[in-house]
## 1
Amino acid sequence: MLPAKVKNLWRLLHGRRLMDFTSLTRKAYYSRLVLGIETSCDDTGAAVLDETGTILGESLYSQNEVHLRTGGIIPTVAQQLHRESIEVVVHEALERSGVTPSQLSAVATTVKPGLALSLGIGLAFSQKFVRKHNILFIPIHHMEAHALTIRMLQPVPFPFLVLLVSGGHSLLAVARGIDDFLLLGHMLDEAPGDTLDKVARRLSLTKHPDCSTLSGGQAIELLARSGDRRKFPFRTPMGRIYDCCFSFAGLRSQITMSILKKEAEEGIEQGTLLSCVNDIAAGTQHTVAVHLAKRTHRAILFCKENGLLPSDNPILVMSGGVASNQYICKALTVITEKTGLRLLCPPPRFCTDNGVMIAWNGIERLKEGKGILSPSEDVCYEPKAPLGVDISAKVRAAGIRLPPVRMKIRS
Ligand code: KG4
Ligand code: ZN
């Protein structure tokens, strides 16, 4: 309880609206339940967590099957699907948790980065919800949420190195605090998940009996298990650029050229399954894995040279949708074993987008009292939002050459 004198002073100084805010902060201190809402891309997710990271209730509606049918994410379609499902998803998460809106300390919602039309639905719903129920609001950065998910599952102290790989992003950063990141490298063209999705689409993998409902990345991983990667030895991108940035567009051109050549050889047209899809999938997955591993290897060496990670038990976290790929995890393990780091990856259901990771980021912010807003405050979504302080030019200037590493990865 705040002493009466302090209360009166607040009332005098700030008037009624801010008194509401103090009473809300007090409520947050005692109960600490957060509702997380995610709509940045093509998943409508909601979850209620307590501050220990226990998931009290969750609901997730994936639009994947619709977008597979339309041949990629059409923003207006994604927006409409979010609009149709947000209320049900939030209601389900709350009902499963047995928590009423008045018991919540805050609502945490992804407001950046992502598809403008998708972000807008989650934000508009959340602002209406917090105003109706008079609860605190915590705007969330989607990539920060991916980076911190692991801390919900096990204690991982700062600082740690993080590789975030998804359908919209590829980046390497040092996480120094919940809102303190050093960006070592970022993508220059398309994200690895996007590349995998486009290759899968070019190969018409939805027509494959085992892949009809899988995302592109999942389909490539499944087929690659019985493929021979040596039949398609694609060049690893950016071999002579000694930084930690990523590029996948050139790799996709190489893959498309090989597909065209094979289609001509087999006398088939685009839209028909090639006999060698497993081998192409294996070659694609291997090259993506090696590119990610090499850039991460350089990031580790840079961190070591500059004392950015603890010498005792340094950790690499990998997260984002592509991090659910077991072959890519093994490639990264080759690097962490060579450099003495420990690789931590959330299980696949927490790597791909979900409401849980957003609620957890809200809990982390609530605990540290960072970025917590009163319900009446206006918030704008931001489709583009960098993560942390960009020191990628400094990394490039260091020009670190990698020692040879044998990338022997068993699928
Ligand atoms: O993090 P996420 O759910 O959404 C974004 O923020 O982008 O990531 C989705 C991406 C998709 O491109 C999907 O193909 C890829 O993650 N993905 C995978 C796997 N599962 C999902 N990529 C490779 N292997 C997988 N097993
Ligand atoms: Zn994501």
## 2
Amino acid sequence: MFPSKVKILQRLPQLRHTFWCSTSFGKAACSRLVLGIETSCDDTGAAVLDERGAILGESLHSQKEVHLRTGGIIPTVAQQLHRENIEHVVQEALERSGVDPSHLSAVATTVKPGLALSLGIGLEFSQRFVRQHNRPFIPIHHMEAHALTVRMLHPVAFPFLVLLISGGHSLLAVARGVDDFLLLGHSLDEAPGDTLDKVARRLSLRKHPQCSTLSGGQAIELLAKNGDKKRFNFRTPMGQTPDCCFSFAGLRNDITITITKKEKEEGIEQGTLLSCVNDIAAATQHTVAAHLAKRTHRAILFCKANGLLPSSSPTLVVSGGVASNQYIRKALTVITESTGLHLLCPPAKFCTDNGVMIAWNGVERLREGKGILSPNIDVHYEPKAPLGVDMTAEVRAAAIRLPSVRIKISS
Ligand code: KG4
Ligand code: ZN
């Protein structure tokens, strides 16, 4: 049934080479060094890591402020901001690390998936950089990087289940190796972060005194703390479809209809804050959490039925920008506790896009000798790039029914 046998690596790969390198702190025994560069969406990030995952230097320029003002990411604006910042961001990460480009073992850069114009800036810069300094190049899949970040922080062995939820993606996959994933489910329309951002915009949360600088997801989480999630009853999506795919567009439509209705009732124009904004935020967050939890629950049962996870200490890793939401984490904890899985979430700063996760993915590939290219090879970016072997049809065919689990969270 599966493309290849499930292989359980019980230990992390050992360091292969240790050599002397010089940093600003003098000479030190260190492992191979990787520069990571991220520009797939709206963050320009760079970091230098050693082979053990120590962050020697990093720099991140977020475009969030600009995109909040323009009401969403405009690709040409994102491209221009990456163009203006990439040189400085990479330079700053290198300076903070005290590492000279000649001491880098490789440069790893996100080349897929993402916004074409944004990916193009990172790739063009990186190809010039590796040619100038004659360094190997490692093209990185952005979702692979999100999935592997956890291994920089905890000794998590393959295979593990991973839920990636961000502004651009939602997917469930079994991570079997650095470049070996089984895709169990993905979003059929929009990603949960995108939905939260759009609902926040429709609610004009930028005008809320506590939310003006927050992303949509952060604003909804904050307001939901003082809201009554039961006041609005949004239907959890895809209740009749027994697979692990996600859909958020219908939910967003339901929420928009409710907002419009409440505006009429309160006699206010679109663009004015509703009095029930906290309750809408709470109900939205709860429904998104319930949908994510149910699909994850089915993925766990599918993995168990097919022996895809180790019997001892099976792990669910949750990452991506939306994974920093504490309510969603609690909903997932209910599922992992009821199914005997261990839940791991990287801290928020590693859940959102950054150069560190790309450098770490480079380290993982370097250790395994996978996908390391000579600097002169031309690489192309890919705006769309599925992760791993598509198992969604098998998951749907299994039609696993979920036992009822009460997701009761006091927020
Ligand atoms: O991973 P990320 O930094 O960028 C990509 O989309 O790849 O994720 C950004 C997304 C945004 O949609 C933002 O609203 C959402 O993550 N987000 C959150 C929270 N913090 C960020 N969503 C829910 N709760 C949060 N606390
Ligand atoms: Zn991301």
